[in-house]
Design a protein that fits this description.
The complex is a heterodimer of chains A (113) and B (112). In chain A, strands 2, 4, 5, 6, 9, 10 and 11 form a 7-stranded mixed sheet that branches. By secondary structure, chain A is mainly β. Chain A is built from no helices and 11 strands. With 112 residues, chain B is an all-beta fold. In chain B, the strands form 2 sheets. Chain B has a 5-stranded mixed sheet with strand order 1-9-8-3-4, with no helix packed on it. In chain B, strands 2-7-6-5 form a 4-stranded antiparallel sheet, with no helix packed on it. The chains are: A mainly beta (113), B mainly beta (112). At the A-B interface, β5, β9 and β10 of A face β4 of B.
Chain lengths: 113, 112
């Protein structure tokens, strides 16, 4: 099956701990994105990457880090500097071409213990 | 990107058409209108997009007014599985990686 996968579905973080959320796509898409969604709210962009080995900060990048070593993978690390990490995290990807649209993964729900 | 305004919630009877409005009065000439929906605790799902002509696909129809200041997403025969939050976004394709910013959306409740 082609698509975007995120793991784990649920993730628990202890205070002061870094955690990494996985995002993989086999759609051969060039661009990948990470969004955060808080309860009852829309999506806010954390980071995005248009090509391998390159990424840009979004609107709320503080306390997060990413890497893009492979085209199909775009992991997000939530660092201890992120003071309010509890949220629903969504990964998306998009093919090249100005008229292409984004397709989303199923999401990871992060909870702080 | 232009700002959009949507009603926070709507109800629709199962089997009837659901018409979801979106105002985007500050839309510029090269901005497209995109619609996504999000079923509870899942990732958003792309529905349809358009520039100025009406568009139809297997999921929905998109009607854009002639002045492009508003649009309506039509689900012709709503089912219970169409209960979701629907997001209207206007965007210039290709801007800064073409990421999407979602507002609050319209929570559509389809009732039996």
């Amino acid at each position: 099956d082609g698509g975007i996968t995120q793991s784990p579905k649920y993730l628990f973080r202890k205070e002061g701990q870094n955690v990494t959320l996985s995002c993989e796509q086999n759609l051969n898409h060039d661009a990948m994105y990470w969004y955060r969604q808080d309860p009852g709210q829309g999506l806010r962009l954390i980071y995005y990457s248009q090509i391998v080995n390159d990424f840009q900060k979004g609107d709320i990048a503080e306390g997060y880090s990413v890497s893009r070593e492979k085209k199909e993978s775009f992991p997000l690390t939530v660092t201890s500097a992120q003071k309010n990490p509890t949220a629903f995290y969504l990964c998306a990807s998009k093919a090249s071409g100005v008229r292409e649209t984004q397709y989303f993964g199923p999401g990871t729900r992060l909870l702080v213990l | 990107d232009a700002k959009t305004t949507q009603p926070p919630s709507m109800d629709c009877a199962e089997g009837r058409a659901a018409n979801l409005p979106c105002n985007h009065s500050t839309i510029s000439g090269n901005e497209y209108v995109y619609w996504y929906r999000q079923i509870h605790s899942q990732g958003p799902q792309y529905i349809i997009h358009g520039l100025k002509n009406n568009e139809t696909n297997e999921m929905a129809s998109l009607i854009i007014t002639e002045d492009r200041k508003s649009s309506t997403l039509i689900l012709p025969h709503a089912t219970l599985r169409d209960t979701a939050v629907y997001y209207c976004i206007v965007r210039v394709p290709g801007n800064a990686g073409n990421m999407l910013t979602f507002g609050g959306g319209t929570r559509l409740m389809v009732k039996p």
